[in-house]
Structures are given as structure tokens and as C-alpha cells.
Amino acid sequence: DKGNHRHFMQKEIYEQPIVVAQTLRAYLQRMEDRVTLPIPDYDLSSIKRVTIVACGTSFYAGMVAKYWFEQFARVPVDLDVASEFRYRTPVMEPGGLMIVISQSGETADTLAALRHARSEGQTIAAVVNVPTSTMAREADLLLPTHAGPEIGVASTKAFTCQLAVLAALAANLARAKGRLTPADEKAIVKHLAQAPAALNAALAYDEAIEAMAGAVAGARDVLYLGRGTDYPLALEGALKLKEISYIHAEGYAAGEMKHGPIALIDENVPVIVIAPSGPLFDKTVSNMQEVQARGGKVVLISDYDGVEAAGEGCLATITMPKVHPLIAPLVYAVPVQLLAYHVAVAKGTDVDQPRNLAKSVTVE
Ligand code: F6R
């Protein structure tokens, strides 16, 4: 049932504040300022290395998580798309943790990667949305997302719930490694607990995003740029746009622009720049200015301070609430989802059932 929404995708984008809150309830003990896992007896302290494997949007959630595991827990992370992981003879030392991430829990390549890792003696953690799925059954540690059924083929609420779970896992791993003080943990609880309200605030920009979707709907190619955890967001934005609007889109690390893709820039290629204010902001803005100097039309997605500092000369700006960097990937997922959604609606494509795509990919 779509309720009063036109598409399942739109409904699912709007459910994010609630389902992220629902997911966080299973991982945050707010009275005690603790981040816990629903597998209380498991000891993560001996984990020396993490391997993260997934496909598509779930892979981009894993890419964000790599930054967090390395930053908080100082544990090295290998990251692969599942279809490549299986065939590159990856090195997995005993004592490693394999994390598979999947909405459906049935994606063939991810499941095969899980089984391969098991045969190599890895402990398997599965971040899955369907609790009865094959991956949920085969994992040692089940870390459910509580997004509820996702019907739209383009994944939205599953992604933000995956990020919530992965942030909780990163905090738990950091604590097990002796790298999380009670004060750090308290701060993480506080920031994660702010995510639902921040997602709500981000949704308030829906109409503004709809109003500028026309500027993107006419394009043949679109670029998305970001740095740090906004780089996976750029990739996710491009994936969302191409799968539902059929516009060719690419995500790039902002610093990689000048190593090739800048040759594509002209006034016909909108460039979506994802850049919350913070330590990486100035660097990304200088990449953005390289685009503008070549006649490129920039859509800047930032917070009030970022838009004030760098919004001039942009084709459009989208102002997000100012949030802590830990929850920025969840919050900035909203405008990239909404932009793809409104562009697809403007183009009249089948938003919930895009051509050539299936919700669950159970073949290799
Ligand atoms: C993109 C999308 C796909 C899935 C991918 C993995 O919007 O929906 O890229 O993310 O097929 O699916 P799961 O998460 O079920 O393993």
C-alpha cells in the first residue's frame, strides 16, 4: 500500500526517519550511553581485519563503513563488490571478520562470497533487512536492519538503515579494540540519536529539490562529486539517477576530477557536488571551482554555512541541516534520492519498476 504517496520509492524515502529510529532502537542503549549489538556474547576484540562485500547500493553503504571502521577501530578493511571478490583469490587470514550487506539477503554474488569466506575460516556478520533470508540464516552474527519491506526496486530506506547498523558495529569494534572512551561512546550515541530528526529536516527540502529537478531532467550526462564519506554518496547518487531516470551519471571522488572526467565538463553536464561544511569542504570547493571555470553547471548540496560560503555562481543549491559528520551520510542520502526521484517523475519513467532491473538479483 502506497498510502498517500504516488510511488513506493517516494513512500520509502519518507519512511526513513521512522525506520532509522526503529533500527537504532535495537542498537543504542540511550539511558546508559552505550552502543550495543543484538548479539551480546560475541567478543570482537580478536578481530584483526575486516572484509566487506556487497552489491550496488549495499556496497556503497559498505564503502561508507570502511571509513568508520578504520577511523574508529583502526582495523584495516578490505572492500569489494561481491562479483569481483569471488574471483580474485582474496587473502583472508584466520581471525578475520567478513561483513556482508544485503537488503534482500538473497543476492547470488553476495551469498557466494559469504560461503567462500566461511570456507576460509572467517566469522560472518550479515547486515540484512529480510530476517528470514538465506544470508540471515547462514551468518554467525545477524545484524538486522529494521527498514520493513522495501518494494521500490531502487533501494532507499534499506541504505540509511544499513548505515545506522554499520555505525553501531564500528563503535562496538572500536570499544572491543580499546579505542573508544566512555565519552566517545556517549558522543556517538548522541549523534546517532539525532539522525531521525535530521532526516526529517532533510525531507523538508523535497519541494525545493522538485523545483530544480527540471534542470537535471534535460541532461544526457550528470556527474556527482564528493570526498571522504561523501564519495560513496556521490556513487550512490549517480546509481539512483541512472537506474530510475535512465540518464547517464557517474560518481567520482572530487579529487579525481582532474585526472580525466574534467574533460567531459561543459554547460550541458550538470555536476552535483555533495559537500557538507567541515574539514574537507575547502578541498571539494576548489574542485567545484575547477568545474565552474570550464563552464560547468554546479548543483551544490551542503549546509547553510557551505551554501553561504560557496553557493554563489551555482546553478542551484540544496541546503541540508547542519549535522555531525557521523550522520551526514544518512542525511545527505535524502537529497540524492529525492533528486533522482523527481527527475524520473519529470521524465515519466516507471519509478518503482525501472526497465531491465529486478528487486532481488539471484543469478550471477
Ligand atoms: C540500487 C539497488 C541495487 C541493490 C543491489 C543489492 O538501488 O537496489 O543496486 O542495492 O542489487 O541488493 P541487496 O541489497 O538485496 O543485496
TrEMBL record:
<dbReference type="GO" id="GO:0006487">
    <property type="term" value="P:protein N-linked glycosylation"/>
</dbReference>
<comment type="subunit">
    <text>Homodimer.</text>
</comment>
<dbReference type="GO" id="GO:0006047">
    <property type="term" value="P:UDP-N-acetylglucosamine metabolic process"/>
</dbReference>
<feature type="domain" description="SIS">
    <location>
        <begin position="212"/>
        <end position="354"/>
    </location>
</feature>
<feature type="domain" description="SIS">
    <location>
        <begin position="40"/>
        <end position="179"/>
    </location>
</feature>
<keyword id="KW-0032">Aminotransferase</keyword>
<protein>
    <recommendedName>
        <fullName>Glutamine--fructose-6-phosphate aminotransferase [isomerizing]</fullName>
        <ecNumber>2.6.1.16</ecNumber>
    </recommendedName>
</protein>
<keyword id="KW-0677">Repeat</keyword>
<keyword id="KW-0963">Cytoplasm</keyword>
<dbReference type="GO" id="GO:0004360">
    <property type="term" value="F:glutamine-fructose-6-phosphate transaminase (isomerizing) activity"/>
</dbReference>
<dbReference type="GO" id="GO:0005975">
    <property type="term" value="P:carbohydrate metabolic process"/>
</dbReference>
<keyword id="KW-0808">Transferase</keyword>
<comment type="function">
    <text>Catalyzes the first step in hexosamine metabolism, converting fructose-6P into glucosamine-6P using glutamine as a nitrogen source.</text>
</comment>
<feature type="active site" description="For Fru-6P isomerization activity">
    <location>
        <position position="359"/>
    </location>
</feature>
<dbReference type="GO" id="GO:0046349">
    <property type="term" value="P:amino sugar biosynthetic process"/>
</dbReference>
<keyword id="KW-0315">Glutamine amidotransferase</keyword>
<dbReference type="GO" id="GO:0006002">
    <property type="term" value="P:fructose 6-phosphate metabolic process"/>
</dbReference>
<dbReference type="GO" id="GO:0005829">
    <property type="term" value="C:cytosol"/>
</dbReference>
<dbReference type="GO" id="GO:0097367">
    <property type="term" value="F:carbohydrate derivative binding"/>
</dbReference>
